[in-house]
């Protein structure tokens, strides 16, 4: 079943069809552009004879390479470029005035993100051709059919994609097929391409362990894979309404909830934040945890521009709670340790919304990066606490 295309998969959330135009030995060629970044204009057709140092020079002067050689050689070239393009470096502080030496972790984090996105832009400079099938139109191209159709739908014309993006599609398919084990469900959740994978289970243990208010109805705002709805349904809530803005998330949640046998308990609605009508005795939301711009599909699950979703949840919560109902906000304090949001900001938004904190459960995350002393943000990550805030009307 996992190898088959998903029936009813929504249209790809890529920009409108766009076309790449290039000169191939005096002949103008076009192909549909499947990249997530802007359409490149300075294109050079290259093959296996291109050396990594020449590719690096081309990338640095803004030239994008359309690969016409062997697929595996293209992958090797991408790895070689990856070794040459510098990644983010920790800020060095020495000497100078005291103020200049003080760490500004928020500014460092911003620079780190900038460097990562520059590197990612440069690595998107190797393009591979795709043909209807969908297939990689190169020697020794892998079978991409199921992965591509699941991520973007069928291909009907000659197309082009950055190799890096194609590898992302193939990687996402692995997650979708294998699933992510969720101890709180004693089952696996199967994320789709572009949906938030519940890899860090600690926040789900909080949802599974908190005492439920006395209610039959819950809302799950921004359901993603449907994992929180599945936990609530398994815990005995009779009627859950789960929302998400993303059509991919709605399709993914439907598949997971049906697979887990709770599809009849959970209603799905593609909408902005709260269901279009009604109130619930429990309203749960796990918004992206860091304020910041979100330029890619994956960023959208991690970064909440200007804390929009967090604030929309808090301001909308009182009118969507039944009398005596509870809102559960699941969020970590990493943003506080990175200087991106303060505890006073969060408490201020809670109070301004007419809410009060009825309780809070905390857990220390155990993910790999929290324990990695070489991570440039180790002090912030190792101090991180994930919390479930129980909010009621003031
Ligand atoms: C951090 S993910 C959490 C997903 C899931 N609830 C979980 O805990 O694994 C946030 C989710 O909110 C969704 N989202 C973002 N903005 C939204 C909005 N304005 N209305 C509804 N959903 C939104 C995203 O598409 C994403 O699926």
Polypeptide structure, described:
The protein has 394 residues and is an alpha/beta fold. The chain has 14 helices and 18 strands. The strands form four sheets. Strands 1, 2, 3, 4, 5, 6 and 7 form a seven-stranded mixed sheet that branches. Strands 12-11-10-13-16-18-17 form a seven-stranded mixed sheet, with helices on both faces. Mean pLDDT is 89; it is low at 1-12. Bound molecules: S-adenosylmethionine.
Which helices and strands, and how do they pair?
Blueprint: E1 18-24, E2 27-33, E3 43-46, H1 52-60, E4 64-67, H2 71-84, H3 98-101, H4 105-123, E5 126-131, E6 135-136, H5 145-152, E7 159-162, H6 163-178, E8 180-182, E9 187-189, H7 202-209, E10 217-221, H8 227-234, E11 239-244, H9 247-259, E12 266-270, E13 280-285, E14 290-291, H10 297-302, E15 303-304, H11 308-320, E16 321-332, H12 334-337, H13 343-352, E17 355-363, H14 378-383, E18 386-393
Parallel strand pairs: 2-7, 3-4, 4-5, 10-11, 10-13, 11-12, 13-16, 14-15
Antiparallel strand pairs: 1-2, 5-6, 5-7, 8-9, 16-18, 17-18
S-adenosylmethionine binds at residues 196, 198, 222-225, 227-228, 243-246, 249, 272-273, 286-288, 301, 309.
């Amino acid at each position: 079943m996992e190898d088959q295309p998903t029936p009813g998969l929504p249209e790809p959330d890529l920009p409108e069809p766009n076309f790449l135009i290039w000169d191939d030995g005096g002949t103008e060629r076009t192909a549909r552009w499947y990249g997530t970044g802007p359409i490149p204009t300075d294109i050079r057709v290259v093959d296996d004879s291109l050396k990594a140092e020449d590719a690096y020079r081309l990338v640095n002067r803004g030239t994008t390479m359309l690969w016409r050689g062997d697929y595996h050689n293209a992958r090797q070239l991408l790895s070689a470029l990856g070794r040459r393009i510098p990644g983010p470096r920790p800020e060095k502080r020495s000497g100078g005035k005291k103020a200049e030496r003080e760490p500004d972790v928020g500014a460092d984090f911003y620079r780190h993100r900038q460097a990562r996105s520059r590197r990612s832009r440069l690595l998107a400079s190797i393009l591979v051709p795709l043909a209807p099938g969908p297939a990689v139109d190169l020697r020794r191209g892998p079978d991409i059919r199921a992965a591509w159709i699941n991520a973007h739908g069928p291909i009907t014309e000659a197309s082009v994609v950055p190799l890096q993006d194609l590898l992302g599609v193939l990687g996402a398919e692995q997650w979708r097929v294998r699933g992510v084990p969720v101890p709180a469900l004693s089952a696996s959740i199967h994320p789709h391409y572009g949906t938030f994978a519940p890899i860090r289970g600690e926040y789900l243990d909080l949802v599974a362990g908190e005492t439920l208010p006395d209610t039959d109805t819950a809302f799950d705002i921004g359901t993603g894979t449907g994992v929180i709805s599945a936990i609530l349904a398994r815990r005995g809530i009779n009627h859950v309404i789960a929302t998400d803005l993303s059509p991919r998330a709605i399709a993914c949640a439907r598949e997971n909830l049906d697979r887990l046998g709770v599809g009849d308990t959970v209603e799905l609605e593609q909408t902005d934040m709260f269901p279009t009508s009604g109130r619930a005795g429990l309203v749960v939301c796990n918004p992206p945890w860091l304020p910041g711009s979100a330029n890619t599909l994956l960023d959208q699950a991690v970064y909440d521009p200007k804390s929009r979703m967090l604030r929309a949840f808090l301001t909308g919560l009182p009118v969507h709670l039944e009398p005596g109902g509870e809102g559960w906000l699941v969020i970590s304090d990493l943003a506080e340790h990175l200087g991106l949001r303060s505890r006073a900001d969060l408490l201020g938004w809670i109070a301004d919304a007419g809410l009060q904190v009825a309780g809070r459960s905390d857990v220390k995350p155990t993910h790999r990066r929290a324990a990695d002393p070489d991570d440039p943000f180790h002090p912030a990550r190792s101090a991180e606490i994930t919390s479930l805030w129980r909010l009621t009307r003031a």
